[in-house]
Amino acid sequence: MKYAVLNNQMPAVHNSGLSAFVVKDSGGFTYGKSDDDLLLRRRIRESSSAYGKPKRPLGPEAILHKAWRNAGLEKAKVRGRDGHIYSIVYGGKPGGSLGPDFTDAVVERDDGVMFRGDIEIHVRESDWRAHGHHTDPRYNGVVLHVVAAESEGKPALKATGSSIPLLALNWKRPNGQIKPSKRSSNDAGNFQQNPAPEAPSKIKLQLDLASAGIERFHSQAAGIALDIEAFGADQALWLGVLGALGYPRNKRAFRSVGTHATWAVISACRNSSDAEELLLHVSGLAQPTDENRSRRSPTLIKSSPPKWVRPFGRPANSPQVRIKAISTLVPMWSNSGGIAKFATNLIQSVESAKHLQTMFRPNELIANKEITVLGAARASEIVVNVLLPAVFAMTTQTAGQQQDSTHLKNKVLNLYTAHPKLAENSVTKEAVVALSVDHKLPKISSACDQQGLISLYREMFRHGIRPRQPRLPGV
Predict the structure, then answer these.
(1) How many C-beta neighbours within 10 Å does residue 33 have?
(2) Is the peptide bond preceding residue 311 cis, with omega within 30 degrees of 0?
(3) Can you give the pTM of this predicted structure?
(4) What is the spatial distance between Cα 240 and Cα 287, in angstroms, rounded to a whole number?
(5) Taking the CB of residue 268, how many other CB atoms lie within 10 A of it?
(6) Which residues, 6+ apart, have CB-to-CB distance to 195 below 8 Å?
(7) Hey, which residues does 88 pair with through a beta bridge?
(8) In degrees rounded to 5, what are phi and psi of residue 297?
(9) H or E segment to which residue 236 belongs
(10) C-alpha torsion sign, points 215, 213, 250, 246
């Protein structure tokens, strides 16, 4: 098992914000036992303005989380007992309440090897097994186990049986424990020990969000084109819309619903109530009534319901509410010749990108307060990530009519680049902070810019940002 430990240069330790965890007694990790510790805890809380100040006092593990975030912002370097130096290129995005503490982190070793994956943080090394992570497949992507105090217990293992490199923050120098320098009580408010010299300012290159956004659009269109070839335009768009109803954790579950309750099946329902009952039954969220069970289409594939990941967040984001909202649109799309034809006709007729929401938020349904409709933010997300790429992909499947096809492609791209900004989410907020460490970001003025921001953020932790190549309209 490999071990990574703090650099033995104290200035670097203090700059990384990780030195609040060098206090250790015979019983293991001790927290808040000295004035030095309290001062360093205060320093960690105040050192990262990019992420804001905590609303309540932080506990030991939460302080470790904050310290890891600071280390990623400041490009902290750590040394392994194997003699290698590790640089925290990107500390990762907070993982939320489920799974690892940070996801998509990037740690570079001095020999050029890049570690990309998840980070799990604990106070003690033994907490890995105590929390049951060694049998949980959600932690198989962890590339670094960060702990405040190393223990003599069993090493951290994944469910696959492989070991995980350890970053132990209680490392001691060979000549003894690091001790803070003496200071008077007047220095308590401005504690700083052996400050490191300021690094020379480096020139930050400005990122091209618009080109990255266009590139992401073409990538999404290419993915939908594969579904069109496999299932047809209606089913491909139906799968895309259902997948966009759920946040990333439930996208697969929603697509599973569309796989079994296909567009051919759902469009045959007599009304929105039958469509809703069918979708709820396939999703495993409700059982059909005896009256409708006999009317259910024999072509419906019987299968196990998908696994839904909780919590769903606000009540309006629950699968049941989203299914109810999309069911009201099925008759409208079906009576217009299918979902794909409805989408194509809409794009050919609209003059502004803001009118594309009418596919998912028709005025006649919004006016009826008794009908559940999709929220404006979710409708815009589907327009940008599904509707426009899908229609663009459908034009590539058109035989003949080359002039009309090129005209429609160009109009789709114009609507995409002109679409207003979408609502901010955790990914876009994290992308701004992470990309700003090494690059300059232009003003984000459109949904295309936001899509480029997301694309560059994901590209950063996968293989590094590459130069962008402009693409011609309609290509």
Answers:
(1) 10
(2) yes
(3) 0.70
(4) 25
(5) 15
(6) 11, 14
(7) 107
(8) -60, 135
(9) helix 233-245
(10) negative
Q: How far apart are CA 472 and CA 396, in angstroms?
A: 15
DSSP 72: H
Distance (Å, rounded) from C-alpha 42 to C-alpha 63? Answer: 10
Identify which of 101, 32, 112 has the alpha carbon closest to the alpha carbon of residue 72: 101
Q: Long-range contact list for 21-25, CB < 8 A, 24+ apart?
A: 21/63, 21/64, 21/67, 21/148, 21/149, 21/169, 21/170, 22/169, 22/170, 22/177, 22/178, 24/149, 24/170
pLDDT tens per residue across span 275-285:
999 999 999 98
Q: Give the C-alpha separation, 247 to 305, whole Å.
A: 18
Distance CA 434, CA 75 (A): 11
- Residue 21 CB contacts under 8 Å (≥ 6 apart), including other chains: 29, 63, 64, 67, 148, 149, 169, 170
pLDDT digits (tens, 9 = 90+) for 366-390: 988 889 999 999 999 999 999 999 9
Asked if 438 and 90 count as a contact pair (C-beta separation under 8 A), the reply is no
Average pLDDT for the chain? 77
CA distance 102 to 67: 13
What residue ranges do the domains of the chain occupy? 3-176, 209-462
Q: Residue 221: CB partners within 8 Å, gap ≥ 6?
A: 389, 390, 392, 393, 396
